[in-house]
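REVIEWER CHECKLIST
Item 1: Sequence provided? yes
Item 2: Single chain? yes
Item 3: Sequence as submitted:
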Amino acid sequence: MTSTSSLDTASASAGAVSVQPVAARAIGLRKVFGRTVAVDGIDLDVPAGSVLGMLGPNGSGKTTLIRMLLGLTQPTAGAAELLGHAVPEESALALPQVGALVEGPGFHPFLSGRENLRRTAATEPMLPNREIPAAVDAALERVGLADAADRRYRGYSLGMKQRLGLAAALLLPRRLVVLDEPTNGLDPAGTRDVRRIIAELHAGGATVIVSSHLLAEVEATCTHVAVLQAGTLVAAGELSTLLAAGAGGLVVATPDVELALRTLRSAGATAYRAERAPGEEEAVVVGDDGPPAPEVIAALVRAGVAVHEARRSRANLEELFARLTEEPS
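Item 4: Structure as written out by the authors:
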C-alpha cells in the first residue's frame, strides 16, 4: 500500500510505486466543502486481496475518502481508481463487482427486510432474476437475519438495520467490499459476525476496506491500515509492520514539538507527541519505521528544532495509534 508516508514497510519515501496489484487507488485526492477541507491530498494504494482498516477519529475524513473512491462524491482535486477503472468516469465497469455499506443503510420502512433486499437484488446487473430468491435467503442467513426477514424494516433495531445493509453488500460474490463503520449499533454477537464475514471474504480472495475509529476492530480483522487525522494520511502500511514499528522508538526532548512533528512526518517517519509527567520536558517519539536515528536528528536540526536529548524507549501500541491521530496544535 502506498501513501505519502509509507509503502508496504510503512517507511518508503513519497512517490514510490507499488508493485502489487491494486484494488483501489487514491491519487492526490482532495475534497473541500465551503471553507472546510475534509480530505487533503491523500495518496493511497489498497493492495488486492488485503483487508485495509481506515482508522481515525470521527471527522478525520474516512467516509469522505471512501465516497470519493466509490464515485459517490466528486473530488475537488486528484483522481481515484477502482479495480483498475477511473472513478467516476468508468464507475459502471467497476461497481457491479463492489459491495458497499456507507454511512448506514437506507431502506423502505414499510417493507420487510426480505422485500427490501429483493428490491436491492433486482438492481444488481450481475445477478440473474431467477437467482434472486436464493441469493436473498443466503445473504439474510449469513448476517443472522433469517428469523426477522419478514418483519417490517421500521421495526428493526439499529443493529438489525446494520445487518440488512451488510446483507445488501453480500448479495453476490464481490472483488471488493467496502464497509463504513460496520459494527455501528451491533451487540458483541453482531460484532463477532462481522469479523467472521470479513475473514470469509479475505479467505475467498476479496479485498475489504473497513472504516473504523475502533483500534481493537482494526487489529482483529485487518492486514493493512491507514491512519487518518483531520483529512490527512499520517501513517499507512501493513499492520504487522506498523505494529512492529510501535514496539520501540526514539524519544527526542524538544520545546519545538509541533515543528518537530511536521518535520518528521514530512521525512516519512511515524512520530507523535510523548506523554510526560509533570515537570518533564516536552518530547516527541519517533518510530523505527523511518530514517535511522542520526538522520532523524540531522533533519530536526536542519529544520531549526532545538534537540535537548535523544534516547531509546518502548511504546504502548494503543497509545501509538491514538497519538498518530493527534494533530499538532
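Item 5: Key structural point noted by reviewer: Residues 247-324 form a domain with the Alpha-Beta Plaits fold (CATH 3.30.70.980).
Item 6: Recommendation: ____
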